[in-house]
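An example makes the point: we let one protein speak, the chain in one-letter code, the fold tokenised, and here it is:
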Amino acid sequence: MGKPPAPELLPGTLDLLILRTLIAGPMHGYGIAQRLRQVSEDVLQVGESSLYPALQRLLLNAWVKAAWGASENNRRARYYTLTAAGRKQLASEREEFARLVGAIEKVLNMA
């Protein structure tokens, strides 16, 4: 028997997770996806078809900025960095997410 399929993320959650990941410093897209997979113990497996549109959204909102650089294996890669506006957005989204999770827990635990 294999692993169950990866759960689907709630809309907007991927943006929150990317912003949180970038607190550690600049990362390229593949590095972000690997970090999410690693920290979530393989539960969150973000594919390119989800990751890069999310990064583009974050760029358009000026929550991240991007610059080209060399990756660990000397390949050209686009590195994303959290901006001050991104830090502010992360704080706001974390608060809203905590509120949502609290509400869901109340419903799941109702008598």
In short: Residues 84-108 form the longest helix (25 residues). The longest strand covers residues 64-70. The domain at 13-108 is CATH 1.10.10.10 (Arc Repressor Mutant, subunit A).
